[in-house]
Amino acid sequence: MELRQHFLLGLACVALAACSSAVKLDTVPVEDKVGTTVQAPPTPPDKAPAAEATAREVKVVTPDANLQALAGPNGPRTVYFDYESFVIKPEFQPLLQAHANYLLAKKDRKLVIEGHTDERGGREYNLALGQKRADAVRRALQVLQVADGQMESVSYGKEKPAVVGGDEAAFAKNRRAELVYR
Amino acid sequence: MHMIRRRDCVASVLACGTGSLAWAQFRLEVNGVGLTQMPIAVLPLRGEETAPLKLSAVIDADLARSGRFSAVNGAGQSMDETSRPDIAFWRLKGADALVAGSLTRLSDGRFDLRYRLWDGVSGKDLGGQSYAVEAADLRLAAHRVADAVYEALTRERGVFSTRLAYVTKSGTRYTLWVADADGENARAALASPEPIISPAWSPNGGQLAYVSFESRKPVIYAHDVATGRRRLIANFRGSNSAPAWSPDGRTLAATLSREGGSQIFAIDTSSGEARRLTQSSGIDTEPAYSADGASLYFVSDRGGAPQIYRMPASGGTPERVTFSGSYNISPALSADGRWLAFVSRVSGAFKLHLMELASGSVTALTDTSADESPSFAPNSRLLVYATQIQGREALMSTTLDGQVKARLSGQGGEIREPDWGPFLK
Asked: What is the pLDDT of residue B391?
């Protein structure tokens, strides 16, 4: 239902785009037309079984580690990289573990890993560098047992910066891989 | 066969020093000394005020952009193609060549554009032509006059009537344009809410291959410019990018990540079959065929940093081509086989460089710091490239000695990814 709305929205965007153009963007696979900001609908966390507690018992509740680990699409989805580097820093291992857990639990979900770079350098070389970052994330998830068929790594190079700016603070936010569920 | 005397222009260039001269339609930068340019006067065409654009200014700007000519002001002189030039006057003005002509509206609504070229020293008639054109084709006719004048005076083919492709970004809207060689008269070939990069003209000038992100990943299309019909060339798993046509138009070299990493493949344009050409564990990208089709230049980080390599077009052992610097990308080869243009990072700045292939000698051509995407004019005499000027994206043309540069006009918004098309029949 919601997916269909997004699809129509996507179609509308494309139709709008085609108006002043000599060419209609009509040869694009339909399933790829959803807008970039679309996220998968939130997945309700698996409910913990209702406690069969007696009235006098007090049960301590701690945030469920499993729920956190299953955050998947709703948790953090961005891995940041150093300049000209495609090495995944240790601080992002928990993030990757969380997505791996989610993908292992939800075998029908597909993940697209989008690699990005900062604005310095050529467009095509940056595209290849972004691909290297996306591939590094894909390999890290493979090590965590995620099936290769659930993942695709692609690159946007420097074409889609997360923030605009010519300083290192902006560059650092743009050198990234985004994990996108479709 | 007539010889035109070339007057050495050192004095006049020294007089303006290093700076820019304002021309009718664009800014021309003339840097350095020792330029040999032929002084030429292009007079207003008689009757051109009836046209929607000033044709003599288009011709003048074309010739100036080539770097081979300097403009002589012929103000006050009124001539057309039937006149007899006042040679004493033009000798005094220092004009080695002279162009005059006329524009007349025909009864069917078209225009009759005529011109004649004279040697300004001897007064000799060097020929002329007439063109009957629709109003919409007047700019093209002016470019053809500039080509004919250029060819008569340099004995080389002019490129003013060829076409450029480039991409603009305006807000979140990306447009692929096909324009005249001066960037004007642009027509949209594709508009998309997602990025478009790396347009590449087919050898016959009929199609553009490019990378579009409209399906939220990089995919290669080939697009018939006249009909707008297009087809998917590469939509493999992962990224598909950096299309480059072989000179016979049968093969597109491209970078695919379908087997892991970014590697170069040869894609048969009729069957769509892709054959892997490079075998490295790192990045191999930006393939570019030599004009004879025998070699494929490309960028690889196999040595630890991006450098330009060359290998046989069917694959084989690569040899390294660039040695200085730690970041050399975006190879472009001239049609005459003499030159390799590329972008090199120097002290954090990205600058257009030119290598003479026979000697391996390299020169930097620009003072800008974000140069990208060089592409040769089909006569191997000019380069077009993208850069940033005062924080804004711009397209520039330059002579191969870097001494004459022009900022090309174009559509508003950010402008980038130029590719210079071939000669059209």
From this structure: 87
Task: Indicate which of B170, B257, B322 best probes the interface with A, i.e. most A CBs within 10 Å of its own CB.
Answer: B257
| Rounded distance between C-alpha atoms, residue B27 and residue A139, angstroms | 51
- B 115-174 residues with CB below 8 A of A? 173
pTM of structure: 0.85
pLDDT, tens digit, for every residue of B334-358?
A: 999 999 999 999 999 999 999 999 9
Query: What is the number of domains present in chain A?
Result: 2
Give domain B10-154's CATH superfamily.
Answer: TolB, N-terminal domain (3.40.50.10070)
pLDDT tens for residues B189-241? Answer: 999 999 999 999 999 999 999 999 999 999 999 999 999 999 999 999 999 99
Identify the pLDDT of residue B36.
85
Q: Choose among A22, A125, A131: nearest Cβ to B306.
A: A125
ipTM over 0.90? The verdict is yes
Together in a domain, A68 and A104: yes
- Cβ-based neighbour number of residue B177 at 10 Å: 24
Q: How far is CA A16 from CA A38, B144, B173, B191, B416, in A?
A: 18, 37, 11, 10, 23
pLDDT digits (tens, 9 = 90+) for A127-143: 999 999 999 999 999 99
Domain of A23 in residue numbering reads as 1-38
CB B181, CB B165: distance < 8 Å: no
End-to-end CA distance of chain A: 15
Q: Is A37 on the interface with B (CB under 8 A)?
A: no
CB contact under 8 A, A22 and B188: yes
Is A126 part of the contact surface with chain B (CB cutoff 8 Å)? no
Give yes or no for A17 touching B (CB within 8 A): yes
Which residues 357-386 on chain B approach chain A with CB closer than 8 angstroms? 372-373
User: How close B407 comes to chain A (CA, Å)?
Assistant: 20
Domain assignment present for residue A49? The answer is no
CA distance A123 to A157: 6
Domains of chain B, by residue range, sit at 10-154, 163-420
Average pLDDT, chain A: 76
